[in-house]
Design a protein that fits this description.
By secondary structure, the protein is α/β, with parallel strands linked by helices. It is built from 24 helices and 15 strands. The chain has an eight-stranded parallel barrel with strand order 2-3-4-5-6-8-11-12, surrounded by five helices. Strands 7-9-10 form a three-stranded mixed sheet, covered by helices on one side. Strands 1-15 form a two-stranded antiparallel sheet. It is globular. It binds beta-D-fucopyranose (FCB). Beta-D-fucopyranose binds next to loops.
Length: 618
Amino acid sequence: MSTQDQLQFPDGFLWGAATAAYQIEGAPDADGKGPSIWDTFSHTPGKVWHSETGDVACDSYHRYPEDIALLQRLGAGAYRFSLSWPRIQPDGRGAPNQKGLDHYRRLVDALLEKGITPVVTLYHWDLPQALQDKGGWASRDIAEIFADFAAIAGEALGDRVHRWITLNEPWVVECIGYRIGVHAPGVTDSAQATAATHHLLLAHGRATAALRAASPSPAQVGITLNLGVVRPATPEAADLAEEWDARQNGVFLGPLLRGEYPGRLSAEYSPAKVPGLVRDGDFGVIREPIDFLGVNFYAPNYVGPDGVDGVDGVMVQPDGMPVTAMGWLIDPSAIYELMVRLRDEAPGLPLYITENGSAWYDYVTQDGAVNDYERIDYLHGHLAALHQAIADGVDLRGYFAWSLMDNFEWAEGYSKRFGLAFVDFGTQRRILKRSGEFYASVARANALPPRELRGRRGTVRGVTLAAFNASPEDEAIAVMLGCCASRRFARAMAAGRPYPSLDAVQAAIETTFSSMTWDDVVEAMAAHPRIGARADGQSAAEQAGVGDASRAALAAGNAGYEQRFGHVFLICATGLSGEQMLAALRARLDNDEATERAVAARELRKITALRAEKALAG
Ligand code: FCB
């Protein structure tokens, strides 16, 4: 390949990978660690998918040398990880727990030894539970308490860590944690959420100053925001899109860059409109100068016009756009748009992409590989868009892939894999995915090669498509694998050419499987070039992390389990005949449709209730 075909990144561009403490560390009470809100939340039944927890996760507390070896294989120049606050201050206050600090000293030293720059996030969502018991982010004291923690971290690690991020995604904390309660601490109270917004910003400002003051060597400090690209699905929704933009972007960028909250927001979202919340001098604290802005970006959002009295709007998924396993849209033009916006809105402020990546239905083939071409495609598209942004004057200094390895994806548990390395959670084996090899080639060359899978975008509509583009038998196998476990997904794919209609897929399933035994399936899969590796049911299950405990769960009739690994594991574990498999699949598809109907009905009820509420208030 000639170097001319490559997209060269600026000299010194930092290539890294990111993780967060609760998502990877495990060891929830090792060496004096106190409980965090995520320990509490994940142990509360029904909060996390299949009640999974971060108790073990990737066991990185013990296995960090393996993680560093992975970083080396990725050619990463930097590693973004977070400190677990309750490891360092078990109750969130007072004298530090030296054993907790020692862990991070060891980690940092091991990184530096390999020439990898540590980029440390102080807060990636695992608040000490003791602080939540006193009000958490909804209480103003937290700003000072967080600054004390920042000073402890700066003093202990500042001789060897020079790049810091105060907070990760404060919008997710306030909105998902305090407003809609899908994340820890699971609060659903908009007054608390709006208070949290302001206190997070205040805490950021205080921590920035405290960290700089405490660090024995100069500290570069920034904050990471998950800024949105909110697009109107139809022209009538333009105003709604602006409203959402203010709630997610303006509410943080405004105070940080200009010392003000967006005027258009109501008291439900704007701290400035809540009496007594914003005090004199607060904006001065919040505007403590930062050295860079970290941006996490995954997908654009579309807002539909079906709002309640023109206020709320609904997030919509435009038909036919490709999505990841998270259901997040894939559109690299959005990251470009965001970068250019920041170039104009925050001139002179260096930017880093501190997270970007995608989840797919990854699996290990029989020869031990993870062929995640879809992730490569996503990466390629986003890196090309960022390259263009740099060419257009955006001061982007580095890129951190989310994530170094598969991990605990918050409320989604282990059902979503974002890693450049596959983690077999049963054995903790890490396997560099094909996307990891691709990323290493980019990092080492500091350049993006031409797209290998040219022409796939637009024809590839998700992970299953390679299989779907094949014979009906392959399609059926892919369905059995659960890659397109939901009927909605199958329907979406059926809408696009050249893929077969849902009926055709189902017909193929019927003819293929009704007459097959499990052995036939195994044989067919063994012969399959792309997914044949699933042939050996038992060991394939092993590879994907289905250990004894999981098998026991299956035996106990944990029917939803197959969502995680696909129908094939359900079948493996239960040893169904072909006919039974077909019945199970049919039931599953029907069940999906019922779920969809239930979700739609629930949404409708919500909108009706809101309308009634507004009518009453008006
Ligand atoms: C971001 C989080 C990160 C990870 C990715 C998928 O919002 O910061 O921890 O969960 O999403």
